[in-house]
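Final report, results section. Input specification for complex C-07:
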Amino acid sequence: MEFSIKSGSPEKQRSACVVVGVFEPRKPTLSAELLDKAANGYISDIIRRGDMEGKAGSTLLLHNVPGTLCDRVLLVGLGKEKDFREKEFINAARLAIKTLNETGAFDATIFLTELAVKKRSIAWRVRQTAMIAQDVTYKFDQFKSKKDEVRRPLRKLTIGVERRNELGLAEEALNQGLAIAEGVTLAKNLGNLPPNVCHPTYLAEQARNMAAEFALDCEILERADMEALGMHSLLSVARGSHQPPKLIVLRHKGGKSNEKPLVLVGKGVTFDTGGISLKPGADMDEMKYDMCGAASVLGAMQAVARMALPINLTVIVPATENMPGGNASRPGDIVSSMSGQTIEILNTDAEGRLILCDALTYAERFEPDTVIDVATLTGACVVALGDVASGLFANKDGLARDLLDAGEEAHDRAWHMPLWDDYQDQLKSPFADMANIGGRLAGAVTAACFLSRFTKKFEWAHLDIAGTAWKSGSNKGATGRSVPLLTHYLLQRAGKLN
Ligand code: BES
Ligand code: MN
Ligand code: ZN
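Structure output:
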């Protein structure tokens, strides 16, 4: 879809469709009033008759409204003005774009940016509109022989702003929104790909392509490199698979050369069977999404590179399958991690932490300012927070605060979970420095505690996206979640968030 920004009155738009809002009960927004004036009360008449009460979730499509230059007017119900917040704005924009995509209009001009949203700027409204438009129209049908084509899909969306002096700000916000949306789309695509296609080698290939397109440094470590580095924890997970593991490193050098980089680490288990601690069969296909942490950090990298943010950003993706097999790790095996700490593998299905710990130790060599890892790490996190919030853990409260704020701003929320020492005891092993599982209680916390033992040398946060990275059921699919949170955090750090 093509996007642009325009200032000017809705009645003067030469467009296949103009979108304006109506509050409940029967209260037109400023843009709706302007249209109504030009149309000599045509719209207020319709509202008075009760065809559009302004209820949230309702729409009304009008054709040939007199006094206007557009073919159609789409009225969107916004609910009560006093209740109109972030969520209501997002729902209204989603509904508007979904409806537009189903009308015959090829292009549309949307006037929802004028609506005041508590604590949210014009830039926020523009960014969100762009992200929502790309999200609503996303399809993953590359493996369908017959695609269900939308008859006349929306091709061009113009976002109307009230004042000319808002144009510059809105343009910048549009570019940011589109860059983030592109990152989200990449993350969704990688997640949705079947696991026979999206294996570690494929992920490495995608990283190489991205590096070529955006002039990033790219390094792919092979099994032999990992052996030389002593990454026996990561390697222990890859043992059961015929697919070779890869450790992907991408570097964007947008900041000063002496500036310490931010490092993002993403769990890239391209399929998680559980290994010898085999998972039950039901819904196991969803474990193709176990590389969504990797997809998120690659998506964030692409957005940052597209925006050419003046920061130094490094992305590390440990990529492997977790398969059973004659050579696979056994429960009871003890491995030594790159850090030197030894691990007793009591459950081969707790593999995410085994690959992340070596990637986190590897991050040390970049002398990071901050390290954030993203992983579909625990079913326990899904039980705790459902599909609403990602679990957030950090060894520094300021970092946790900044990430929570970024999640709020992006509408990709996280919830702060504890990392208290009291939980560390659950990881005791009689034979090694630690066990890889911490028992039935607080599974998301003990997984984070495990990682914390490898992140003592830097400020670090961990996002458990097991509940948020994809949707199950009839609208199964990757969400791209944590890309908006991460990119908003990075925009904020770069001083580019208006
Ligand atoms: N990838 C899974 C976590 C997961 C499970 C994410 C279900 C989303 C839905 C992870 O590797 C795993 O299997 N974790 C185990 C850990 C346990 C063995 C301590 C889990 O959560 O059951
Ligand atoms: Mn697992
Ligand atoms: Zn896993």
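The chain has two domains: 2-159, 180-493. Residues 2-159 form a domain with the Leucine Aminopeptidase, subunit E; domain 1 fold (CATH 3.40.220.10). This concludes the modelling results for the funded period.
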